[in-house]
């Protein structure tokens, strides 16, 4: 039977593989449609989908890496590999945005044909598919408590948004006719800006995880509350939480009766840990320092 980290990682791997397959299909569809349909916005979308394949592959490898058990050199496990992968995804998105933006500016300055009408059908298919993928992958990311999987989901959402921008640009280019051809390229430029924004949204929580940023204050309070539910616990202080991969860690000080034996204090600490993990199973470890009551400031 799989434990929770293994189960959530398996779920993330399965979701990622599905995303890779869909992204590969859509990248080919958009590239062919963009080249033959004279739409750089669609070609830009194809570039973004190709980046999807690359980053999703990175995610798949990262999930495999982060799921490795703790060893002699990594006693706390390999969970932070997920955050590294999320940062890699963000950087790849930035690179794609810069490439798309540069080519868009070049195309705006150069006259070219209006996009073919059938490119709109391709874009509609892409928008619907990518939005459905976003919802599916994001749901998995939330269930697995995985920043990397959630980052991959936002990548699908950014693809849907850029396709939406492309749809608007292509529509203007087709309906407007001569003189409006560059609307397609302006749409691609807008898509590049949206991609950069999404890259930041992915980067920010990932760097926070790498730097052991405190988790949500409400979650901290809940952890402290659960610790305080144990009758022998007089006081809870210095409760800190952090994320490592798909799981969380907590550290805290608890105060108990100074007349307790070491063994009794140990039993109380275990009761605190068990209570927290029973109610919040995403906490894979809880480090507890036991203090005597007369040590309270």
Automatic annotation (TrEMBL):
Main localization, broad class: membrane
Membrane topology classification: Multi-pass membrane protein
Pfam families for the chain: Cation_efflux (PF01545), ZT_dimer (PF16916)
Keywords of this entry: Membrane, Transmembrane, Transmembrane helix, Transport
Domain Cation efflux protein cytoplasmic, chain residue ranges per copy: 217-292
GO molecular function annotation: monoatomic cation transmembrane transporter activity
InterPro entries, A to Z: Cation_efflux (IPR002524), Cation_efflux_CTD (IPR027470), Cation_efflux_CTD_sf (IPR036837), Cation_efflux_TM (IPR058533), Cation_efflux_TMD_sf (IPR027469), CDF_Transporter (IPR050291)
TM spans (from-to): 12-36, 83-101, 116-137, 158-180, 186-203
PANTHER family assigned: MITOCHONDRIAL METAL TRANSPORTER 1-RELATED
Family recorded in the similarity comment: Belongs to the cation diffusion facilitator (CDF) transporter (TC 2.A.4) family.
NCBIfam families registered for this protein in UniProt: CDF
Protein name: Cation-efflux pump
């Amino acid at each position: 039977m799989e434990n929770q980290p293994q189960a959530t990682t398996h779920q993330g791997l399965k979701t990622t593989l599905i995303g890779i397959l869909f992204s590969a299909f859509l990248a080919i569809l958009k590239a062919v449609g963009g080249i033959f349909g004279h739409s750089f916005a669609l070609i830009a979308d194809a570039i973004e989908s190709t980046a999807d394949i690359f980053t999703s592959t990175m995610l798949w490898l990262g999930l495999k890496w982060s799921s490795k058990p703790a060893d002699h050199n990594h006693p706390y496990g390999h969970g932070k590999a997920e955050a590294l992968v999320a940062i890699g995804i963000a950087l790849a998105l930035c690179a794609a945005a810069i490439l798309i933006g540069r080519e868009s500016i070049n195309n705006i300055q150069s006259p070219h044909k209006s996009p073919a009408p059938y490119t709109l059908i391709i874009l509609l298919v892409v928008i619907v598919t990518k939005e459905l993928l976003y919802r599916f992958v994001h749901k998995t990311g939330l269930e697995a408590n995985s920043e990397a999987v959630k980052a991959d989901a936002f990548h699908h959402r950014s693809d849907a948004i850029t396709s939406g921008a492309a749809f608007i640009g292509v529509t203007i280019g087709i309906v407007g006719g001569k003189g409006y051809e560059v609307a397609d390229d302006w749409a691609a430029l807008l898509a590049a800006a949206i991609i950069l924004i999404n890259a930041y949204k992915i980067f920010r929580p990932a760097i926070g995880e790498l730097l052991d940023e405190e988790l949500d204050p409400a979650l901290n309070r809940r952890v402290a509350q659960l610790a305080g539910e144990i009758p022998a616990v007089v006081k809870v202080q210095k409760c800190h939480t952090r994320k490592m991969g798909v799981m969380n860690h907590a550290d805290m000080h608890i105060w108990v009766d100074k007349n307790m034996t070491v063994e009794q204090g140990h039993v109380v600490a275990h009761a605190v840990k068990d209570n927290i993990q029973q109610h919040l199973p995403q906490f894979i470890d809880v480090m507890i320092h036991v203090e005597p009551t007369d040590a309270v400031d």
